[in-house]
Amino acid sequence: MKNVTLVLSDGTKFHGKSFGYDQPVAGEVVFNTAMMGYPESLTDPSYAGQLMTLTFPLVGNYGVPPFTFEKNGLPTFMESDKIYASAIIVSDYSEAYSHWNAVESLGSWLKREHVPGITGIDTRQLTKVLREHGVMMGKIIFDDDPDNQPKAEYEGVNFVEKVSCKEIIHYNEGAGKKVVLVDCGVKANIIRCLINRGVEVVRVPWNYDYTDMEFDGLFLANGPGDPDTCQAAVDIIRKQMSRSRKPICGICMGNQLLGKASGANIYKLKYGHRSHNQPVQMVGTTHCYITSQNHGYAVDGKTLGSDWEELFVNMNDGSNEGIRHKTNPWFSSQFHPEACAGPLDTMFMFDKFVESLK
Questions:
Q1: What CATH architecture applies to the domain 159-356?
Q2: Which end of the chain, N or C, is surrounded by fewer C-beta atoms within 10 Å?
């Protein structure tokens, strides 16, 4: 294991060792407090451009499942076709692993996909720094090659363009109601949850104009980066809402794009929500749900138009966790109802959407 140094943009340094691919890398340093689910998190396109810190101390002990694909083209155990996180930062990497479904170690997988991984970092202290300062840019430098300084491109970059599909993909053709899914970096389990409810899914690129297509409902998927870089998608959503009352549902980035289409403002959270234990309340009720989340931006609920209202709010910081139109079947969640990995308390969001398809 080579010695490496994580250098934050404020000059703070953390020293550790490389257990993944030996290559310097830079990006936005974020933290995830989930206790498990690193294969799903690493392959979540929403982590594109980010150095993912895991606060749970022991990582790698259950290895990595096989990268197999189902007949419908969806990966069986992962959330996309490859690792999208720029790097993973852990406290204690376990090279030895034990799990009925594991076929390789986390380290060997990272090396095969050319993704750096560093261990021996005090991830709790790193998280304290990020919570105090807010997420910041950082770079991983190899101590034996200190002049190789990677440069990060994050602010203003349209990561959705980088991870979205480039052509239309069909799933479950001819099954029943047809749903257009706008791919901003969709997780595989979102598609699977729709397919399992008997609908046909037409997956389109993030900036594709679907308004002249024949379909029964619109689904806005999750994705990485700043929603303000996705104005083309917002304009198409507005165009669709002006033409039809067809049901619309969004998740994560989809919530922010729907919020922008409604006229609301978006702001960046200090350090985001990335965990499996975020408590969310349904507005107007006493119902509280435990949710899985991965986002760094939020809708400003106070700026919603008069025809819109908040559907969910975060019980930790009061930030918006979902919106809905007061009369039309348009609603969304900032959290992940499909939660792979994570709790499944809010899976009913898919049921509500499918039921609304006429």
A1: 3-Layer(aba) Sandwich (3.40)
A2: C
